[in-house]
Amino acid sequence: MNLELTAEHRAIREMVRDFAEKEIAPGAARHDRTREFPYENVRKCAALNLLGAMVSEEFGGSGLDTISYTLIVEELSRACASTGVIVSVNNSLFCHPVEKFGSEDQKRRFLLPHAKGEKLGCFCLSEPGAGSDAGNQQTTAVRKGDGYVLNGTKNFITNGVAADSALVFAATDKAKGHHGISAFIVEKGTPGFRLGKDEVKLGITCSGSVEMVFEDCRVGASNLLGEEGMGFKIAMNTLDGGRIGIAAQAVGIARACLEESTRYAKQRKAFGKAIAEFQAIQFMLADMATEVDAARLLTHRAAWTKDQGGRFSLEAAQAKLFASEVAMRSAVKAVQIFGGYGYMNDYPVERYFRDAKITEIYEGTSEIQRLVIAASLLKD
Ligand SMILES: Cc1cc2nc3c(=O)[nH]c(=O)nc-3n(C[C@H](O)[C@H](O)[C@H](O)COP(=O)(O)OP(=O)(O)OC[C@H]3O[C@@H](n4cnc5c(N)ncnc54)[C@H](O)[C@@H]3O)c2cc1C
C-alpha cells in the first residue's frame, strides 16, 4: 500500500472539502436543531455524483475506488456527520449490495437511479430483537405465487424517512437459521409497507432514523436480491464495506474536533495568556492529532485492502473500532478544551460530542468489532 494519496485522490478531497465547507457546514447546526432531513444536501451531493461514488459508470456511478470514497465521507462528516452517514448508507449499504449481488435487471431498475442520486436507499437489517444478534430475524417472507409476502418490523433505519427503496432482510426459512435469511428490495409505496416511529436521537439528529413496518407486504420474486437463503451473507459482506464508511465518518468528526479545538485554544485567554500556551491543552491537541492520523491510516488500509479484491473484514473492523473510539475521545477532549462553552450549543463541539457516540454503535458495536478481530486472531 502506498501511503501517498494520488493526484486524483487529492483533487477529490479538495473538491469535496471546498463543497462541504461552502454548502454543507453552514446549515449543519440548523439541521441538528430542527432534526429535519437535509434533502437539499442530498440533492447537492447527487449533483456532484457523490451518491454512487464506487458504482461503475455503466450503472450511473462515479467508478471511484474505496480510498476516494473514504475521503468523500470524511470531508462531508467533518462538516455534518448526519450528511456523512446519509451518503454512506446510500453508497455502501444500498448501491454496493445491489451492484454486487443484483441481476442485470435489478441493476437497471434499482441501482441506476440510486447511484445517480435520483433516489435514496436504506438498509433494513436491525429489529427490536435483532441488533448485534442480526441472525435472529423475526421478519418473515413467505413465498406466495410469483412473489413473497413480508411481515415484521425494522427499527432505527437511517435515511428511512426519505428513502425511495429499502433493502430488507427477512427469514424465508426459520429452521435454517442464518442460511434461511433472504434479502429483498422494497420500494416506497408498496402496499403493506409503512413508516413507524420517528426516532428522536442523541446525535446525527437529522439522518431520518425510523421504524419500518411490513404488514402483508407483497413484492415480486424479481425483488429478491441474490438467491433465497443468501441474505445473511449479503448483509455481512455489505457491513464489512459499510464499516469503512463509518470509520471515515469517525475520522471526519475527530478532525473537526481537533481543528475547532486548535483554533479556540489560540484565542481563548486565561491567566493572561492563550490556553494553547498551557502544556495540558497542548498534550490534548497532540494526542488528538496523532490519533486522527492513525485512524485515517487504518481506514485507508481497509479501503485499499477492499480494492485488492480479497477479504477485508479484519481491516474494516479494526478501522471502525479504532476510528470510532478516536472520534469519541477527541470529542471529549474538545469539549474539555472549550470549557463551559463546549457544553453550550453556541459552539459546534457540543454537536460533535453527541454525533461521535453513534460511530461506536451502528454497523456493529465496538464489542462486535472486537469479536470480529479476535475471531480472526484465533482461527485455526
Ligand atoms: C442512530 C442509529 C442508526 C442506525 N441505522 C441502522 C440502519 O440504517 N439499518 C440497520 O439495520 N440498523 C441500524 N441501526 C441499528 C444498529 O446497527 C444497532 O443498534 C446495533 O447493531 C446494536 O444493536 P442493538 O441496538 O440491538 O444492541 P444490542 O445488540 O442489544 O447490544 C447491547 C449491548 O450488548 C453488547 N453485546 C451484544 N452482543 C454481544 C456479544 N456477543 N458480546 C459482547 N457484547 C455484546 C453490545 O455491544 C451493546 O453494548 C442503527 C442504530 C442507531 C442507534
CATH topology of the largest domain: Butyryl-CoA Dehydrogenase, subunit A, domain 3
Note the main sheet. Answer: 4 strands, mixed
Structural class: alpha+beta
Spell out the helices and strands N to C.
HHHHHHEEEEEEEEHEEHHHH
Radius of gyration: 21 Å
Overall tally of domains = 3
Strand order of the largest sheet: 1-4-5-8
Would you identify the CATH H-level superfamily of the largest domain?
Answer: Butyryl-CoA Dehydrogenase, subunit A, domain 3
List the helices and strands and how they pair.
Layout: H1 7-24, H2 28-34, H3 39-47, H4 66-79, H5 81-101, H6 104-115, E1 121-124, E2 140-144, E3 147-157, E4 165-171, E5 181-187, E6 193-198, E7 210-220, E8 224-225, H7 231-267, E9 269-270, E10 273-274, H8 279-307, H9 313-338, H10 349-358, H11 366-378
Helix pairs in contact: 1-4, 4-5, 4-7, 5-6, 5-7, 7-8, 7-9, 7-10, 8-9, 9-10, 9-11
The structure holds flavin-adenine dinucleotide.
The site of flavin-adenine dinucleotide has 23 residues, from strand 1, strand 3 and helix 11.
Please characterize this protein's 3D structure.
The chain is of the alpha+beta class. The chain folds into 3 domains: 7-120, Orthogonal Bundle (Butyryl-Coa Dehydrogenase, subunit A, domain 1), CATH 1.10.540; 122-229, Butyryl-CoA Dehydrogenase, subunit A, domain 2; 232-378, Butyryl-CoA Dehydrogenase, subunit A, domain 3, CATH 1.20.140.10. Helix content is 52%, strand content 15%. It has 11 helices and 10 strands. The strands form 3 sheets. A 4-stranded mixed sheet has the order 1-4-5-8. Strand 2 (140-144) and strand 3 (147-157) form a beta hairpin. Helix 5 (81-101) packs antiparallel against helix 7 (231-267), helix 7 (231-267) packs antiparallel against helix 8 (279-307) and helix 9 runs antiparallel to helix 11 (366-378). It starts with 6 loop residues before the first helix and ends with a helix. Residues 89, 122-126, 131-133, 156-158, 201, 209, 358, 361-365, 367-368, 371 line the site of flavin-adenine dinucleotide. Flavin-adenine dinucleotide binds at residues 89, 122-126, 131-133, 156-158, 201, 209, 358, 361-365, 367-368, 371.
